[in-house]
Structures are given as structure tokens and as C-alpha cells.
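Appendix C: a fully annotated inverse folding record. The material below is reproduced so that readers can follow the format used throughout the book. The structure is listed first as C-alpha cells, followed by the designed sequence.
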């Protein structure tokens, strides 16, 4: 009886600690939301606070002046993220499966090549020449997808998980007459759902948060993703805030959104990911811990 009571008390203390820790982890997000609904003058006078001194949507009104442009940015980012994640995840899983097979004679050499590219890469100039001069895919969604299709870390993480699938399972499928494609799609992939969700989430984060590729390869306004559009808006705000002198234009510079716009941009950019993440959380935790055993 005493042992059970002690275990219950210990479990309660552990749960209480993690609840408190989770609340503290939410504080920065609450600050971001609060600042995005505050005024610049309140931030300058009072600093950051969890509750806005003066509630206003001025930062969002400024960012949403062109809703059509924002919708276009969202649609491009969603398209790139969905297509890029699907393509990258499939190729990553296929490559990792080949590396995890003990009967694949070139596994060690291929693993070394992948690991080498994790440490060293060709750099920006070769990529730029390849995309613009040889492939001619600039100003297209493919230019935003192709550079991140194969990421060495994702391949190694996936291989660590697939290596734990018993080889006897594959051999028994072969005895029953299953070919390699059927083994991969009907046996390996269903067993690798936690790893697929984990790596897929990592890939989705990369595609969703990227603005650098759009800066390099996109000139068509209809193909500008959300992150790059918000990046340009933030640069414009910073330029106006630092170069416009009071009295030269009919604008109150002190109220011009700068810090509040930064936080509003963070909310607009991170919102969809924050909504999607909870649905993959259980797979994310399991895939990360199990896949890291041999990774």
C-alpha cells in the first residue's frame, strides 16, 4: 500500500513538473502573440508584456493590405511543401532502404558518399549554374523543390530506423514470391510510418521556412512563396523606419509597425505548421527515438 502511494506521488510530481515546464515553453509564443497585437509606442515605453497595453490589429492590417498577394504566397508555399515533401520522402525512403539492406554490396560506398556530402557540398555557385543554365527551371516550382529533394541527414535517420526491420521478414516475403517493389511499398513503408512521419515533418519544415531559393531563382510574382514575400515586407518596413525622417511624409513614424510587424509575420508564417504538428506528434516522438538507436 505504501509502495503504491509512493509511486502515485512520484508520478504526480513528474506530471506536475512537465506541466509547469510546458507552460513555460508556451510563454515565448504568448509574448509573440501579445506583441503582434500591441502598438509600437507601448513597446517603446513599457517593453514586452504578456497582455497588450493597447490592443490593436494595425500590424496585421498593414500586412494584409494585399490579401490576394498573401493568398498567392500561401498557395505557393503549400504547393511546394506538399509536393516537395512527398517527392523527397519517397526518394529518401527508397535510398535509405537500399542502404539498410545487408545484401546490398554497395551500401558502404554509398553511405560514405552521402555522409561526405553532409560535411562538404559544392556550394552556391554550382547550384545556381545548374538551375539557371543547364536545367533551365528557374521561375518554376521545381526550382524551389529540387535542391532539397535529398538531404543526407534525413537519409541517415531513415536508414537507422529501417535497419531495425528484421531481414527475415524480407526473406519470407521473397519466398512467397514478392518482388522488391512490392516488398518496399506493401511491407517496409507500412512498418516505417513513425520514421516516415518524423522525416516528413523535418522535410516539410525545410520547404515551408525556405525563402532563400525564391530569392535566387524566382522573378515571377505569381511564384513568390509566403516566406519570401514576408521577408520582403519586413525589409521594406525596416527601410522606411530607418530612412524616413519625421515630417517629410504624412506618416507617424513612431506608430509605424516594426517590432509588431515582426511578430505578426512570425504568427502568419508559423500558423499552418503549428496546426499540423499535433497530428504528427505521436509518430514524431516514436520515430525520432527508435530511429536514433542505430543512427
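Designed amino acids, in order:
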Amino acid at each position: 500500500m505504501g509502495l503504491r502511494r509512493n509511486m502515485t506521488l512520484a508520478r504526480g510530481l513528474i506530471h506536475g513538473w512537465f506541466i509547469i515546464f510546458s507552460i513555460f515553453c508556451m510563454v515565448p509564443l504568448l509574448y509573440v502573440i501579445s506583441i503582434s497585437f500591441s502598438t509600437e509606442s507601448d513597446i517603446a515605453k513599457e517593453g514586452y508584456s504578456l497582455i497588450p497595453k493597447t490592443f490593436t490589429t494595425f500590424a496585421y492590417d498593414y500586412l494584409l493590405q494585399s490579401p490576394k498577394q498573401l493568398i498567392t504566397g500561401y498557395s505557393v508555399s503549400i504547393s511546394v511543401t506538399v509536393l516537395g515533401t512527398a517527392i523527397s520522402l519517397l526518394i529518401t525512403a527508397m535510398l535509405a532502404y537500399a542502404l539498410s539492406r545487408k545484401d546490398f554490396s554497395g551500401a558502404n560506398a554509398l553511405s560514405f558518399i552521402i555522409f561526405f556530402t553532409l560535411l562538404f557540398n559544392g556550394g552556391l555557385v554550382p547550384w545556381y549554374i545548374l538551375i539557371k543554365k543547364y536545367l533551365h527551371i528557374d521561375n518554376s516550382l521545381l526550382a524551389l523543390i529540387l535542391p532539397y529533394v535529398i538531404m543526407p541527414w534525413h537519409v541517415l535517420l531513415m536508414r537507422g530506423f529501417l535497419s531495425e526491420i528484421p531481414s527475415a521478414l524480407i526473406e519470407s516475403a521473397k519466398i512467397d514470391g514478392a518482388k522488391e517493389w512490392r516488398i518496399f511499398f506493401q511491407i517496409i513503408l507500412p512498418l516505417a510510418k513513425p520514421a516516415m512521419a518524423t522525416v516528413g515533418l523535418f522535410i516539410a519544415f525545410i520547404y515551408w521556412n525556405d525563402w532563400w531559393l525564391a530569392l535566387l531563382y524566382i522573378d515571377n510574382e505569381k511564384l513568390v512563396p509566403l516566406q519570401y514575400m514576408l521577408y520582403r515586407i519586413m525589409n521594406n518596413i525596416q527601410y522606411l523606419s530607418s530612412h524616413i525622417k519625421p515630417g517629410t511624409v504624412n506618416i507617424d513614424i513612431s506608430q509605424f509597425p516594426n517590432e509588431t510587424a515582426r511578430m505578426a509575420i512570425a504568427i502568419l508564417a508559423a500558423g499552418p505548421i503549428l496546426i499540423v504538428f499535433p497530428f504528427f506528434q505521436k509518430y514524431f516522438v516514436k520515430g525520432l527515438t527508435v530511429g536514433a538507436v542505430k543512427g
